[in-house]
Amino acid sequence: MPKKIAIIGGGGFAKEVIEVALLNGYEIYGVFAKESSLDEYKYFGYLDELNKLKDEFDGVHIAIGVVNQEGVENRRVVIEFLKENSIEQISLISPLATIAKDVKIGDGVYIGHKVLISVGTSIGDSVLFNHSCLIGHDCKIEDNVSIAPLVFLGGNVIVEKDVMVGVRSTIRQGVKIGRGSIIGMCSVIIKNIKANALTLPIPSKSYR
Ligand SMILES: CC(C)(COP(=O)(O)OP(=O)(O)OC[C@H]1O[C@@H](n2cnc3c(N)ncnc32)[C@H](O)[C@@H]1OP(=O)(O)O)[C@@H](O)C(=O)NCCC(=O)NCCS
């Protein structure tokens, strides 16, 4: 019998997560979210309902997308709730991802299509790797980090807890990104970033 997974989140990113869950052979128990646009899956309500029904499925996956600080915080609150209520998080890895054999992967990790994770890297719990990001050798990625599509992390990069790395950002080898930081899309990071920082690249100007 297929294992049943509950999805936390009801938007576009949840749709992507469900695709990977199905590719991994899971049955979707239903959606728990503040609101859901996923009409084809049963919607139950949010965290209180999840806790009441927790014996009916094998585990959950947090499918709340991250485009800014608010997304990081929303996920952090859910992670705390799951810990307090002993609800198991299931990792979901696309069959189209390439991951070195010795990579350590925590609970509730999402790895999307075409992600590449190199040797010696360790990944905490509830980390999100969106499509086509490239993670170098011996990186350390802590809990609740979100890495957007097309990000490049050089070797030995450390990303502390609760960080978002925006789409297409590049992080030089050996750099540490401090806890709670937001790396805006297309940032080029060459030095350590302190905790709770915000980095922004130069945005394009319109000339006509
Ligand atoms: C940096 C970022 C997190 C800011 O998002 P936000 O917190 O929602 O903030 P807003 O977009 O409302 O912007 C806040 C202010 O910062 C400015 N700003 C945003 N990005 C900027 C940039 N690169 N350079 C200069 N100013 C910027 C906005 O113009 C706005 O200014 P205003 O208040 O004067 O209008 C966001 O731009 C970003 O890079 N997100 C990542 C997106 C991503 O990776 N998506 C893929 C996910 S799968």
Task: Explain the overall architecture.
- This protein is an alpha/beta fold and 208 residues long.
- Strand 1, helix 1 (12-23) and strand 2 form a beta-alpha-beta unit.
- The radius of gyration is 17 Å and the shape is globular.
- It contains 3 helices and 22 strands.
- The protein has 2 domains: 4-84, Rossmann fold (3-Layer(aba) Sandwich), CATH 3.40.50; 91-200, 3 Solenoid (UDP N-Acetylglucosamine Acyltransferase, domain 1).
- The protein has a 7-stranded parallel sheet, with helices on one face.
- The chain has helices spanning 12-23, 47-52, 69-84, and strands at 4-8, 27-32, 43-45, 59-62, 92-93, 98-99, 104-105, 110-111, 116-117, 122-123, 128-129, 134-135, 140-141, 146-147, 152-153, 158-159, 164-165, 170-171, 176-177, 182-183, 188-189, 198-199.
- Coenzyme A binds at residues 67-69, 130, 148-149, 166-167, 182, 184-185, 200-201, 203.
Structure keywords:
Rossmann fold; six-stranded parallel β-sheet; binds coenzyme A; 3 helices; 208 residues; alpha/beta; 2 domains; seven-stranded parallel β-sheet; globular; UDP N-Acetylglucosamine Acyltransferase, domain 1
